[in-house]
Amino acid sequence: MNVPISRIGELVENVPGVIATQHSGSGKANQYFLRGFNLDHGTDFAGFVDGVPINMPTHGHGQGYLDFNFLIPETLERIDFRKGPYFADVGDFS
User: What is the distance between the alpha carbons of residues 67 and 57, in angstroms, rounded to a whole number?
Assistant: First the structure.
């Protein structure tokens, strides 16, 4: 991607209707909103990197905790999103 960003949450904000907020410092995953609905810290949507799920099914903060902060934005080629109520082929948190 050839888009300058100041925080990793801005990557998902390129998707219409998605907002990523940062609170409690940078040590915690972003809080996500889709079309005004709170997705908590990714517990209500699935995240994958190169086909590998990155949601943490058992995390003390919430099942499905999703933290994109390990990604290096300059190394990303593309981001794909599918919005909808549920995708059975994707599995948990989709």
Answer: 12
Cβ neighbour number for residue 32 with a 10 Å cutoff? 24
On whether residue 89 sits in a domain, the answer given is no
How is residue 9 written in tokens? Answer: 């949450």
Number of structural domains the chain divides into: 1
- For residue 55, give its domain range: 8-75
User: Is there a domain that residue 86 lies in?
Assistant: no
Residue 1 placed within a domain: no
Where residue 7 falls among pLDDT bands split at 50, 70, 90? confident
For 29-72, the pLDDT digits (tens) are 788 888 888 777 666 777 888 888 887 776 666 666 788 888 88
Integer Cα distance of 50 and 57 in angstroms: 18
50-84 in b/e burial notation, b at 16+ Cβ within 10 A? Answer: eeebbbbeebeeeebbbbbeeeeeeeeeeeeeeee
